[in-house]
Specification:
Layout lengths: L6 E2 L6 E4 L9 H14 L6 H4 L7 H11 L6 H19 L11 H10 L3 E5 L5 H7 L8 E3 L12 H10 L6 E5 L2 H9 L3 E5 L10 E3 L7 H10 L4 E2 L1
Parallel strand pairs: 2-3, 2-5, 3-4, 5-6, 6-7
Antiparallel strand pairs: 1-8
Helix pairs in contact: 1-4, 3-4
Bound molecules: 6-O-phosphono-beta-D-glucopyranose and magnesium ion.
6-O-phosphono-beta-D-glucopyranose binds next to α3.
């Protein structure tokens, strides 16, 4: 009897989970503008370089980083007031968003995944997720949404991605996360998921693959990732 020892593709991955800010839509610039305005008013020097540390982390954790940069410590009630002010400014920006602010290739890739029967979900720290996806017309395209309103622990804790995979009914190791933040890559790895970084490969060095944007992504790259991670089957 002849024993076959070829490796074949098994379609290991069943779901893709997307971060929202900086992956699906370009809201990172609005977060920066609103935090910058607050920092300026408080006399704290806050640069785009500092802003990298805020990506993916919760609203309160972002404020803590800014206060640390300014060497300030404030009582909780004061911090809550400042976070509310920043959010009001941020909401002014996002309430004017249009579908044109969906990042290049995002809608096309999500549609391609759906056509190929992959499940698609959002996994975002933002409490403003429902408003953003409504403004850009993407509310109905996701099979599940896990966001800052439904989870308690911030990335790099895996909670948000584990929640999305459990709502989808797909095991974590069958999910691929798409993330633009170092904290998000760590969260995906902590969840036992594959992850694709969107942006700078130096910052996102722990991702399994780094691309410039979802316009560079396609199903063939998912198959390559399966190969890279040893999910082909020996027959
Ligand atoms: C993340 C952003 O997606 O959401 C962070 O990368 C932001 O910058 C966090 O702080 C929380 O967002 P929101 O909209 O709840 O203030
Ligand atoms: Mg992000």
């Amino acid at each position: 009897m002849k024993i076959r020892t070829e490796k074949v593709q098994v379609m290991w991955f069943k779901a893709c989970i997307f971060d929202l800010d900086g992956v699906i839509v370009d809201t990172a610039k609005y977060h920066f503008l609103a935090w910058k305005r607050l920092a300026d008013e408080m006399g704290i020097n806050f640069t785009e370089h500092d802003n990298e540390r805020l990506k993916g982390v919760s609203r309160m954790a972002s404020l803590e980083i800014i206060l640390e940069l300014g060497g300030k410590s404030l009582p909780q009630t004061e911090k809550e007031k400042l976070a509310d002010i920043k959010n009001r400014w941020y909401v002014e920006y996002i309430s004017r968003m249009t579908p044109e602010e969906i990042l290049p290739g995002a809608m096309e890739f999500v549609r391609e995944l759906r056509n190929k029967n992959y499940k698609v979900a959002l996994g975002s720290a933002s409490k403003n997720t429902p408003m953003i996806i409504e403004r850009v017309g993407m509310t109905d395209i996701f099979d599940a949404v896990a966001d800052g309103n439904t989870v308690r622990k911030a990335k790099p804790d895996p909670e948000v991605f584990l929640k999305a995979s459990s709502v989808l009914g797909v095991d974590p190791d069958r999910c691929i996360v798409f993330e633009d933040a170092a904290a998000g890559i760590e969260a995906a790895l902590n969840a036992g998921m594959a992850c694709v970084g969107i942006g700078n490969s130096k910052i996102l060095k722990n991702a399994h693959l780094v691309i410039g944007g979802l316009n560079e992504m396609n199903i063939d790259k998912i198959y390559s990732l399966e190969k890279q991670l040893g999910h082909e089957k020996l027959v």
